[in-house]
Design goal:
2 domains, alpha/beta, about 20% strand, six-stranded mixed β-sheet, Purple Acid Phosphatase, chain A, domain 2
Length: about 575
């Protein structure tokens, strides 16, 4: 047998050496990650909002969530059903940050802070999810860094030993020396890992009965402030109970109204309205008449109603030729409406969630929880599309983008088979102080830019601009055939507007002027279903859902998108 040429043998030998090296490095890395995991978990921390405050959340081993309120005292919450393995979290509440560039009065700031507190207690699960994700990310980062350091140190040591073995190859050695050394190293590493893990005794908690029936059930308030916490907690408890009862009732009312909602005869694509050739003959693969035709007819009769009307708890299937968009706008941190929107998305089988802006009150980082609330409530795989409103900020848009939302910012965006174009509102409004121009651009300049960029984009199915006035030039110049907006807190359309059509959604948060939005509705809230023909990508019709101040839900009839009328642009004066 002829042996392989020497160069080939050398190459195979090098390849085998590289493979052994990589396997050894991977083994060391995995061993380091395993050894460092307890330390990484118990020292993990993250930063997030706590109402309007900045706060630091650090993992402990005392089985309690401890909110340190400084001189006020501590709020101690049992973590048994929230965190595994007896872990806890220390929450250090810090100052309320100043937002440079936004001039507000003290009264305005207090109102914003109250809104942030209300949003926190209105949907505390959203904050829990944000903190949990942040802690997991920090723990993984710490574990990977520690594993990398362990790999480098252990690898350097083993490489040094290998070099010494080669030098001392002629000397007599104990054959058990290698395994014994590895065992000693492993035990030493485990001992170090155990020593550096901070361990504290479980915290003893005396539950305050005032927290019963709230997410803080089983909690204790310490410090001198505990003497007046009963009255404060009653206010919080009443708010929480009212909020939960109202929006649970609204969701149940939505289920009941869904079954009897008005239906539309238009449930197929435009192409299906034109008879195909030989329409009276069966298609290939279809059964001829007489083989189940009656059953098919009965199924269609039953299925047509189920398809259009649906049943609560079922996942309806729109015809393949129809795209359904669930649109909301001007939620203004009313996190209670998140569960109603989620139910609407679930029962309708919506293909896209479209947010027309003003999801927050002032766009502070603390109000990112308002975006989190909607994001976590909606079905996981439902695409989200968002345009910034004047009460949002660039930080709000960045946060939505970090959650995986598609943010309209001057580029065409394709979602659910449709092409959307939009631009963020240039203002940042803090009521009643007024507007701050975040981009240094006036309303008139922005309106002109919307028209110019929309015309340059071409092939736009829907123009999404928060303030409908700032979409008028683009519609008048035929840069878009259909536009949707919010901002006015009242519904307009669908209506013909010059050579195009438009629709203005009302406030989904029931945002009444001079009133805090979180909590039971202060005015009716509305969101909409917009259906598109999947082949032509043209809007077909719109159905508006209204949640009244008594939590009753009603559906409008399907309103067809009107055809644009004759258009004569106004002459310049």
């Amino acid at each position: 047998m002829v042996s392989a040429p020497r160069p080939a043998r050398r190459a195979l030998s090098r390849l085998a050496s590289v493979a052994r090296f990589l396997a050894a490095a991977l083994g060391l890395f995995l061993a380091g990650a395993l050894l460092a995991a307890p330390w990484a978990v118990t020292t993990a921390k993250t930063e997030a909002a706590f109402g309007p405050h900045d706060a630091t959340y650090a993992v402990t081993t005392d089985g309690a969530i401890t909110v340190d309120l400084g001189p006020i005292g501590q709020l101690v919450i049992p973590a048994g059903d929230k965190l595994p393995l007896g872990l806890g979290v220390d929450v250090t509440v810090e100052e309320i940050p100043n937002h440079a560039g936004v001039p507000v009065s003290t009264i305005d700031e207090l109102a914003q802070d109250a809104t942030a507190y209300a949003s926190l207690f209105g949907d505390i699960d959203a904050l829990v999810t944000v903190v949990r994700n942040g802690i997991i990310a920090d723990a993984l980062t710490r574990d990977l860094i520690a594993a990398g350091i362990f790999t480098l140190i252990a690898g350097a040591y083993l490489l040094h030993r290998r070099t010494r073995r080669q030098v001392d190859a002629a000397s007599e050695r104990d054959p058990a020396d290698g395994p014994m050394t590895a065992l000693v190293l492993s035990l030493a590493a485990m001992l170090i890992a155990i020593i550096v893990v901070p361990v504290t005794a479980p915290k003893q908690i005396t539950p305050n009965p005032v927290f019963e029936r709230t997410p803080l059930a089983g909690s204790e308030m310490t410090g001198r402030f505990s003497g007046i916490i009963d009255e404060v907690a009653r206010v919080v408890t009443d708010y929480y109970d009212d909020n939960e009862t109202f929006y649970d009732t609204a969701r149940t009312s939505f289920d009941a109204a869904w079954v009897t909602r008005p239906t539309s005869p238009r449930t197929t694509s435009g192409a299906d309205l034109v008879p195909r050739p030989n329409w009276d003959q069966p298609l290939a693969g279809e059964k001829p008449a007489g083989d189940g035709t009656e059953a098919a007819t009965a199924e269609a009769a039953d299925g047509g109603e189920a398809q259009a009307g649906g049943q609560a708890g079922e996942e309806p299937v729109e015809p393949a030729g129809v795209i359904t968009v669930l649109m909301a706008s001007d939620i203004h941190c009313n996190t209670g409406m998140s569960r109603v929107l989620a139910r609407a998305a679930q029962l309708s089988g919506a293909d896209l969630y479209l947010d027309g802006g003003d999801i927050t009150m002032t766009g502070t980082t603390a109000e990112n929880i308002c975006v989190d609330s909607v994001h976590q409530a909606l079905p996981q795989n439902l695409p989200r599309l968002y345009v910034k409103g004047n009460h949002d900020s660039a930080d709000t848009a960045d946060h939505a983008r970090s959650l995986g939302w598609k943010v309209l910012d001057g580029q065409p965006v394709t979602a659910a088979g449709l092409t959307f174009f939009g631009l963020p509102d240039p203002r940042r409004t803090v009521f009643p102080t007024g507007d701050v121009l975040e981009r240094g651009e006036t309303g008139a300049e922005f309106t002109d830019r919307v028209a110019a960029e929309a015309c340059a984009a071409k092939d736009i199915d829907t123009l999404v601009i928060h303030d409908p006035r700032q979409a008028t030039a683009a519609l008048g110049d035929r840069c878009a055939g259909f536009a949707v907006s919010g901002h006015w807190h009242r519904r307009v359309g669908p209506e013909a507007y010059g050579p195009a059509t438009r629709f203005v959604n009302s406030t989904t948060g029931g945002a009444l002027a001079n009133a805090l939005t979180p909590g039971p509705l202060k005015m009716p809230a509305e969101f909409s279903f917009i259906r598109y023909d999947a082949q032509t990508r043209k809007p077909i019709d719109i159905q508006v859902v209204t949640v009244d101040m008594d939590a009753h839900v009603s559906f409008s009839p399907w309103m067809p998108i009107p055809q644009p009328g004759p258009w004569a642009p106004a002459e310049a004066e």
